[in-house]
Specification:
The chain is mainly alpha-helical. It has helices at 2-14, 16-23, 30-35, 37-48, 55-67, 72-88, 93-106, 110-121, 129-146, 152-166, 172-189. Helix 6 (72-88) runs antiparallel to helix 7 (93-106) and helix 9 (129-146) runs antiparallel to helix 10 (152-166). The radius of gyration is 19 Å and the shape is elongated.
Length: 191
């Protein structure tokens, strides 16, 4: 509660632009999104100073704050902001595309989310390491969800999970996660 009062004090007395700098340092700032402080601050900075080196970061975190409420209107707003960040092509572009795929999944648009993940998997430069494994597991999870509409997707998910389990250099975490998902998928297939 003290950090929220501090953010309110900063917003009232120091202007919009200083709040963004201070709010990110406060514990529990994810709650600020639901109250609208952080999204408004980030959007205001982008509108007032679109060429600022902080504009991309401000818009990214405004989108993350809007996403935290999980209501349909805020998810759509977050999708728009992440799209803007992705179009900038800066250092947060790849993570913005990933967040867009997550929002589409949250909205029940698994096919759109799968297309976004597949696009990231084939992008240049190609993802590698944990990023690659994370995207592959996400693809498999989306295929499992889509198997409700087309059972063929479950077999495709099995292939994806097997690929992660067999991937040289994959950490124990990714192998274990993919292994559990593989076992669940095989069970659903009756194998």
């Amino acid at each position: 509660a003290d950090h929220l009062r501090e953010a309110d004090r900063l917003a009232a007395g120091a202007g919009h632009h200083r709040v963004a700098g201070h709010a990110r340092d406060l514990p529990g700032t994810e709650r600020l999104g639901a109250q609208g402080v952080l999204p408004q601050t980030g959007v205001q900075l982008v509108e007032d100073h679109p060429d600022s080196p902080y504009a991309e970061v401000a818009e990214f975190f405004a989108a993350r704050a809007a996403m935290s409420t999980l209501n349909a209107k805020d998810l759509d707003m977050a999708l728009d902001h992440f799209s803007e960040v992705a179009e900038r092509g800066g250092p947060l572009a790849a993570e913005s595309r990933r967040q867009m795929a997550l929002i589409k999944r949250l909205q029940g648009k698994e096919s759109d989310a799968l297309a976004a993940v597949e696009s990231m998997l084939t992008s240049k430069p190609a993802p590698e390491g944990d990023e690659l494994l994370s995207l592959q597991v996400e693809k498999g999870e989306l295929l499992v969800l889509l198997a409700k509409q087309d059972p063929k997707n479950l077999a495709d998910a099995v292939a994806v999970f097997r690929g992660v389990v067999r991937q040289p250099g994959a950490s124990r975490y990714w192998r274990a996660r993919a292994g559990v998902l593989l076992a669940q998928s095989l069970e659903r297939l009756g194998k």
